[in-house]
Amino acid sequence: SLAFRGEGLEKVYQTGETSVRALRGVDLAIPLGEMLVLLGPSGSGKSTLLNIIGGLDRPTSGRLFYRDTELTALDDRELTRFRRAQIGFIFQFYNLIPSLTAEENVRLVTDIANNPMEPRDALELVGLADRCDHYPAQLSGGEQQRVAVARAIAKRPGVLLCDEPTGALDSSTGVRVLETLERAHAELGTTVVIITHNVGIAVMAHRILHFRDGQIARVETNEHPVEPR
Ligand code: ADP
Ligand code: ADP
109: which of 99, 135, 219, 228 lies 20 to 30 Å off by Cα? Predict the structure, then answer.
């Protein structure tokens, strides 16, 4: 069965006199538990689609479903509730709160979740059991991003959405972050959608959607997704 189904998704950004068609009739079906990569040139619509899938934004037209719920039929409050319950976001910059420890940063999310993990268990899952009491400034970039992954998975979201999660990291550090994403995917059965230029991530994906000018130009299927080392 499907996590997401989208039909004829259009997005037009209107800024003053000019309008940009960021999505031009995107149809999509993302199976539950899939690891999916969005690839394509800057400005081709990847972030726009990710934000719409995650309930941060709405399409101008078209319909979008998450499992049996039509997201495009929800009001703002219901859409926010969907996002809080089901979506974990990971961005390029970790957005940790500097005055809180790693554990406290994760606890911010678990305190308001329905069925959360223990913050320390989430940090252990990303290999940071011994960093729980560290503040962000005491952690390397890769470790901070792994705290962000722990924070995203600690509420046990149905879906993990990642926008260039390794974009700010060197390649060896990026690999560790990838391993934690793959681990979350394997152990929690989470559907994962990742925007990335990182070839190491693309080979781990079940499928790659190639974007061009607001459309899915090509779909690539990996018969044998590579396990991270
Ligand atoms: P990508 O993630 O592939 O780089 P985006 O989805 O960010 O592409 O952008 C798609 C197009 O929409 C681009 O032309 C971009 O400039 C435009 N765009 C994105 N967000 C906004 C916005 N908030 N307001 C106006 N235009 C936007
Ligand atoms: P990784 O590549 O695994 O993210 P690094 O090799 O960059 O980690 O860092 C190794 C160790 O050095 C980390 O465990 C961290 O505690 C410490 N460290 C790295 N960067 C900083 C920093 N800017 N401030 C304080 N400690 C740091």
Answer: 228
Contacts of 227 (CB under 8 A, 6+ apart): 182, 204
- DSSP per residue over 87-123, as a string? EEEE-SS----TTS-HHHHHHHHHTT-SSPPPHHHHH
Q: What is the pTM of this model?
A: 0.86
Spatial separation of the C-alpha atoms in residues 36 and 192, rounded to whole Å: 6
pLDDT digits (tens, 9 = 90+) for 163-181: 988 887 777 777 778 888 8
Q: What ipTM does the predicted assembly reach?
A: 0.71
**Closest atom of ligand 2 relative to the 143 alpha carbon:** 4
Alpha carbon of 47 to ligand 2 centroid (Å): 30
- Cβ(38) – ligand 1 distance below 6 Å: no
